[in-house]
User: Fold this.
Amino acid sequence: MTERPARPGVFGAAAALFRKDLLSEWRTRVSTNALLLFAFAVLVLVGYAVGPASLSPEDRPTVHSVLLWIVLFFSAMTGLARAFVKEEDAGTAAALRLAAPPPAVLLGKLLSNLALLFVVTLFVVPVFLAMMSFELKSPALFLLLLLFGNLGLASACTFTAAIVAKASAKGTMFAVLAVPLLLPPLVGAVMGTRVAATETELSAGLDFVRLLVAYDGVVTTAAFLLFDAVWRE
Amino acid sequence: MIRVAQLGLGLAMAVIIWASFLWARPAQNFVGESSRIVFYHVPMAWVASVAFLLAAWHSAVFLKKRRMESDDAAAAAARLGFVFCVLATVTGSIFARVMWNAYWNWDPRETSIALLLLVYGAYLGLRGAIEDPERRATLAAAYALVAFATVPFLMFAVPRMYASLHPDTVINARGKVEMSADIRTVFFASSFAFLALFAWLFSLDRKVSRRLREARS
Assistant:
């Protein structure tokens, strides 16, 4: 009697899926290149049109925070939708269904989307700050907002991507479905970033961080609870 | 029995419309007669919220029991909720023009209702994008529940974090209804009538969906 290989646990399977996604992304770099080029194009457009000097100083914090999150949001929209669509396109979704339990699939995809989003953020934020001469009075608050804002973006987008992979008109549907889910955290993140640009105290904008943390917790939990039904469909 | 209830609802609506314009007096601190819109705007906003709750509830039941009747109910609630949400937005916008001189000014409440409209739109759009009924039901239910979990962040967190121009809501922090007796009577009658109207349309929509499904199978 041959011994069956031990099935990995949820975290093991998620880690394997994460590694597989990183590897296949590293080999082609399709998503990363598309994302970075898109982000760069938007940054150039925004930087050229709005520039550092064309706004009066009191308008800058508001306009710059909005623009920064718009760039991040649209970059996320172009890149994160691929997570499940590419499995369906390549015909590997069925194998993935057999190989790993549903929570592991969601966790693995969430991690790879999060990695992708952080790569984009690492590129966009320094360029944006330099290009727009956007000065932050409270960098700590800004970093917290980026961290929890990205977590929320990744969670909501990964779940939406799983739904969209089964629908027609995938590209359009992804934006249609993701925008209502992402509006609350984006409003919070934009307002928090404005506070980070005008106030030196971290505590001044802590309410927005709390909003984001609560949102991340709720949306991630909901995604894990509901993913089973979506994935098996 | 049903006929009598429908007739009664029609009569009640007629009386409420008459009373809302001719019997109830305009409230204090509002421009001209603008306070009368409360008899239509608030019940519609309430119905839109109730419909949203119902859509989420029936979506959860569908995922649990896998019966297509629950999907019919969720879809019916979302379709009607969308209509009432549009009506609440339009009436609110008219009121905003009279009171604050602008149809739209991104007041926290206006932002919340815009989000609710977006969610309803996305849900109905998703339903349109999936052919297979079972798959449509599952994915739409999952989306409705995630949306249901995220909407409160804007509906409740943001409006309370910022000052709003919106008149105090009927259910307010002080825990009592601050309306004069005549306005209160018409207001609650109107809320009840709109809820009844919604219940009627809701059952009709479910019936139509069931018949259509039976005809196809």
Summary: The first helix of chain B runs from residue 2 to 23. Chain B has a mean pLDDT of 85. Residues 49 and 55 of chain B are 10 Å apart (CA to CA). Chain B touches chain A at residues 63, 111, 115, 118-119, 121-122, 125-126, 129-131, 134-135, 138-139, 141-143, 145-147, 149-151, 153-154, 157-158, 161 (CB under 8 Å).
